């Protein structure tokens, strides 16, 4: 495929119609239709299903789109990297953060970064694996700070472990579960899971199984750190939470730790980047600031 075909594919997928993509690209719809047909002929496949409502990707088209997004991101990153190597203060760094990364790591790391890169735009999103890994693979995100995913989820991801955080179970101060002392006491509790199924919030099930107990089912999940705490506070529900964040939480929320006899395995916090894709100078500089912040936390600062 030609570069212009790759840009066209991404534009059509994002717009959901040829007409919308034509407006974005500044082309006529007939010209865009002709380019799409040429791209499909070159590949020997149909990329989109056409209908009166617009276009949707075929199964193979979805795979091609994922690759196209990566190529588009790399082209944009190349332009920024050359400019940065020439000493220009231009470009973007896109970071995905877990709650721990957002609260304890990024504020001070960004302050350090701004001393040497005052004009680089930094965009931060929130997320945990597995959801945070897809934009990283597609090049939308430069790096992720958060719990390290299992090996089978990260075959093409470079994981740099930096800090281990114990995991606590929290509930509201007025919850009937606040005085619980055993996992068995929490079997009937309403559990809130931070993040998606198979993500780090799912770790609460393992200790139940290890102690011969039927693990509870988290009927409510929240991608939002604040959303989960609001539910815990208002409903008297319980959820797992990084122990290194508890001081911040207990100051501002009606939340307390449930002191259990059993322990939940700690979580490794790491920096995740794409294997085989070097960071731009600006992104690499921000990662170094993140490393310095992790080191200061280890030293108790």
Overview of the molecule:
The strands form 4 sheets. The chain has a 5-stranded mixed beta sheet. It has 301 residues and is α/β, with parallel strands linked by helices. Helix 1 (3-15) crosses helix 2 (18-25), helix 2 crosses helix 3 (29-43) and helix 5 (99-116) crosses helix 10 (281-298). It has 3 domains: 3-73, Orthogonal Bundle (Arc Repressor Mutant, subunit A); 89-164 and 268-298, Periplasmic binding protein-like II (D-Maltodextrin-Binding Protein, domain 2, 3-Layer(aba) Sandwich), CATH 3.40.190; 167-265, Periplasmic binding protein-like II (D-Maltodextrin-Binding Protein, domain 2, 3-Layer(aba) Sandwich). The protein has 10 helices and 12 strands.
Short description:
This protein has 301 residues and is of the alpha/beta class. 43% of the residues lie in helices and 21% in strands. It has helices spanning 3-15, 18-25, 29-43, 59-85, 99-116, 133-137, 205-210, 225-235, 246-252, 281-298, and strands spanning 48-51, 54-57, 92-97, 121-126, 143-147, 157-165, 167-172, 192-194, 220-222, 239-242, 255-258, 267-274.
Number of DSSP helical runs: 10
Reported by name, the CATH topology of the largest domain is D-Maltodextrin-Binding Protein, domain 2
Low-confidence region ranges: none
The largest pleated sheet is described as: 5 strands, mixed
- The string of secondary-structure elements, in order, is HHHEEHEHEHEEEEHEHEHEEH
Morphology: globular
> Which bin fits the share of residues in helices?
40-55%
Q: What do we call the CATH homologous superfamily of the largest domain? A: Periplasmic binding protein-like II
Mean of residue pLDDT?
Answer: 91
Alpha carbon gyration radius: 23 Å
Which structural class should the secondary elements be placed in? alpha/beta
CATH architecture of the largest domain: 3-Layer(aba) Sandwich
What's the CATH C level of the largest domain?
Answer: Alpha Beta
N- to C-terminal distance: 52 Å
Number of strands: 12
Strand order of the largest sheet: 4-3-5-12-6
- The amount of beta strand, in percent, is 15-25%
The tally of domains stands at 3
